[in-house]
Design goal:
Helix content of chain B: 25-40%
Strand content of chain A: 15-25%
Order of helices and strands of chain B: EEHEEEHHEEHEEHEHH
Radius of gyration of chain A: 17 Å
Oligomer: heterodimer
Number of strands of chain A: 7
Shape of chain B: globular
Number of helices of chain A: 6
Strand order of the largest sheet of chain A: 2-1-3-5-7
Bound molecules: iron/sulfur cluster, FE2/S2 (inorganic) cluster
Number of strands of chain B: 10
């Protein structure tokens, strides 16, 4: 049987969603029979591959580099899934959105106001977006798994359903926070 | 007594009963947010909308009385879609970040989103910066999480009898205020009875340092009922 090609992406999030993915524990062994990981922060692969069947995305879109990677992943993936509250709502990473000029404000706060001396805003890092965005405000998303982090069981449920060609039903399963 | 049908089931309830109560007494659950048993119904959140055959309009179950021969549907796909939409609007209107909210896991809005399968919001979220008042000795209001259900206003007025709380402005700008828009600490009418924090369905009014699981037990409902029935 041909294995389903799966990738995972880590944007602006704390990696908790990836931890939760790993928390599937022995169920991962079942999954491993059906899937092949092709790109992930858990692996050492630099470029996003072609023809991916399923991509799980943790984290919100906060800078240009992330936005580009996300768009590339959308183009090369059949089924795209927002994994966790940051990806689904923006969550904590989007708290800065309440401030006007939030990109500048947050840099100033972190690198100038909080620095003891000679604070400097770095110039060689990806440019922050004006507002932090959930994934589906940037590209089309096929399925959503909210939660901070989403429980391993729910991740497993969604993946198992999709691998069986079914549509997951999130009623009573999804929970923000 | 009035005879009617709810979701195909024949029921008999006293005259002037609201549809919500008629359904509940017959073990039919209609989702609600602004309604709280014991307080005068407000009909603001529109979560309890139901269909009545013969009309293309939808009716809030909490403020619509039964009438003889009514045929009510409480759970069609259309209603479910509307309810999901309402929850999405509420989640988008102000800043709801459950993961860092005092009410996480004890919030009526969050749990309704869960029950109805609202796994994302199609509306862009407003990242609001409403005023937080933590001047009171132990009560806090974070207006960013307020869904304007007015339960707090009603309990303060109808049960505590002081009417400290009210609304200023309209629509999405509406805000719960104390006295004539004072800081809480300067309110001369507030008795610090905590009823507002008891009935708030979300994490907007809470008691500093006390887990919401303790303060939102809703035993206020029993309290209200006994007070109401006291001769
Ligand atoms: S009030 Fe409820 S829905 Fe809003 S952030 Fe808190 S837990 Fe989430
Ligand atoms: S503590 Fe009691 S009196 Fe004060 S605002 Fe709340 S309900 Fe009203
Ligand atoms: S503070 Fe709480 S109880 Fe009062 S209107 Fe807002 S959500 Fe409702
Ligand atoms: S519960 Fe009926 S309108 Fe809110």
């Amino acid at each position: 049987m041909k294995k389903t090609k799966v990738s995972t992406i880590w944007l602006s999030g704390c990696s908790g969603c990836h931890m939760s993915f790993l928390d599937q524990d022995e169920l991962l062994l079942e999954l491993a029979k059906k899937i092949q990981m092709v790109y992930s922060p858990l692996m050492d692969i630099k470029t996003f591959p072609e023809n991916v069947d399923l991509t799980l995305i943790e984290g919100a879109v906060a800078n240009e580099e992330q936005q580009n990677l996300l768009k590339e992943a959308r183009k090369k993936t059949k089924i795209l899934i927002s994994l966790g509250d940051c990806a689904v709502t923006g969550n904590v990473t989007a708290l800065r959105n309440a401030w006007s000029d939030s990109d500048q404000a947050v840099l100033k706060k972190a690198y100038m106001e909080k620095s003891n001396k000679n604070g400097q805003i770095p110039t060689d890092v990806p440019k922050l977006l004006k507002k932090v965005r959930p994934i589906h405000e940037v590209v089309n998303v096929d399925y959503f798994i909210p939660g901070c982090p989403p429980p391993a069981g729910v991740i497993n449920y969604v993946l198992t359903e999709l691998l069986a060609g079914k549509t997951p039903n999130m009623e009573g399963r999804s929970k923000y926070g | 007594m009035v005879n009617l049908k709810i979701d195909g089931i024949e029921v008999e309830v006293p005259k002037d009963t609201m549809i919500l109560k008629a359904a509940k007494d017959n073990r039919i659950d209609i989702p609600t947010l602004c309604n709280l048993e014991g307080l005068i119904s407000y009909g603001g959140c529109r979560l309890c909308l139901v269909e009545i055959s013969g009309s293309s309009k939808l009716f809030p179950a909490c403020t619509t009385p039964v009438s003889p021969g009514m045929e009510i549907t409480t759970n069609s796909n259309k209603l479910k879609e509307y309810r999901k939409m309402t929850i999405q609007l509420l989640l988008s209107e102000r800043t709801h970040i459950c993961s860092v909210c005092v009410a996480n896991d004890h919030c009526e809005l969050q749990s309704l989103a869960n029950q109805l399968g609202v796994d994302h919001t199609i509306f862009e979220r407003n990242w609001t910066k409403e005023e937080i008042d933590s001047t009171h000795d132990f009560l806090v209001i974070d207006r960013n999480r307020c869904i304007l259900c007015t339960r707090c206003i009603r309990v303060c007025d109808e049960i505590e009898g002081v009417h400290t709380l009210d609304l200023r402005l309209r629509g999405k700008d509406a805000q719960i205020i104390m006295d004539m828009d004072n800081q809480w600490i300067n309110s001369c009418s507030c008795t610090s009875c905590r009823k507002c924090s008891n009935v708030c369905p979300v994490g907007a009014i809470y008691i500093e340092g006390e887990p919401v699981s303790h303060t939102k037990k809703k035993d206020i409902v029993e309290f209200i009922k006994t007070r109401r029935n006291r001769k």
